Amino acid sequence: MTVVVTGACGHIGANLVRALIDSGRPVRSLVHLHHRGIDGLDSELVQGDVCDPESLDRAFRDAEVVYHLAACISLSMRGWPQLESINVIGTRNVVEACLRAGVKRFIHFSSIHALQGEPLSVPVDESRPLSDSPDFPPYDRSKALAENEVRRGIEKGLDAVILNPTAVIGPHDYEPSYLGRALLDMAQHKLPALVTGGYDWVDVRDVVQGAIAAEEKATSGARYILSGHWLSVSDIADIIAEITGTSPPRLTFPLWLARLGVPVVTAMSKLTGKSPLYTSFSLKALKSNRNTSHEKASRELGYQPRPFHETLTDTLQWFRDNGQLSGFATRESGKSA
To answer: For residue 70, which of 105, 44, 33 has the smallest C-alpha distance?
Structure first.
């Protein structure tokens, strides 16, 4: 039973492809610009682009299951044309190609950003409305509208399930992702100061296992939030310091003050060529709902996120082993981890 993964070389994709191969399933990976994240794996590679329907027809031929992860992730309040092209129209192309190919099960990776977080006093669950109006940040809106494309596919007979993971961290983060960069910057003392606020963080391996369980158990049209644990930025910095035996940044700025510095950070990013981690979008996200419920996924899929300390330890260890983080000593042993 051939399984196709779009976005196979991204953070979640690289972990998903490994898990599927480990379970003995034939995997076909749709690759676009590079395939570093899955180099050397026993996966058939097909060059393609979600904006190119013909390439999707080639990729999905004889496939029974498609996991759709390919997407554009943005921390900017701009860039709508690209987000619409890849996340919205690209998902439409993927859905229509699945229908043409007779795919039997479609697992769509959305985002917690596709769901409205307010009111903050009420836990976020699968009943929340979508962030599909122009009032929401471009990325949120693009992921919400992509879900609408999947719903249209369901109406046409596609057997599809939607997943909404929170902030994903973990091993095999080759790029690295925005969140991976933030962890590396903390561990390498490249962040002179922290900000208040926090987010719900989830291990990429738990997201992958939740997705595979959804493929096996979920009914068509179901949605599942795959969340983990809410921690503040300061909490994470303290745990990193504990793991590495270093000291966390001493300064923590309130979000309102950090927002005043966004134009400066943006200007500096243009000089360095690196996308800024602190933007008006990311700072707004740090004020999001503290209670994101995975109760439905736990009840119906057996989903259970692992302890956050384990996730962060394994992530830093992977970055070290992959040459992205220099050796560090643990407080417990005083030896190189």
So the answer is: 33
Distances (CA, A) of 241 to 208, 298, 316, 330: 28, 31, 11, 9
Report the 10 Å Cβ neighbour count for 269: 15
Pairing of strands 160-165, 223-226: parallel
Q: How far apart are CA 140 and CA 204, in angstroms?
A: 20
Burial class (CB within 10 angstroms; exposed 0-12, middle 13-18, buried 19+) of 196: middle
Domains of the chain: 3-175+200-230 (3.40.50.720)
CB within 8 Å of 203: residues ≥ 6 apart: 168, 169, 170, 228, 305, 306, 310, 311, 314
- pTM value is 0.92
Burial class (CB in 10 A: 0-12, 13-18, 19+), 74: buried
Torsion of CA 16, 18, 24, 27, to 10 degrees: 70
Closest CA to 7 of 96, 56, 69, 50: 69
Cβ neighbour number for residue 325 with a 10 Å cutoff: 18
Q: By mean pLDDT, which of 12-21, 181-190, 258-267 is the weakest?
A: 258-267
Q: What is the pLDDT of residue 15?
A: 98
How far, in Å, are 196, 253, 297, 323 from residue 268 at the CA level?
A: 22, 19, 42, 26
Dihedral sign of CA atoms 176, 322, 30, 112 in order:
negative
What ranges make up the beta strands (E) of 146-222? 160-165, 167-169, 193-195, 198-203
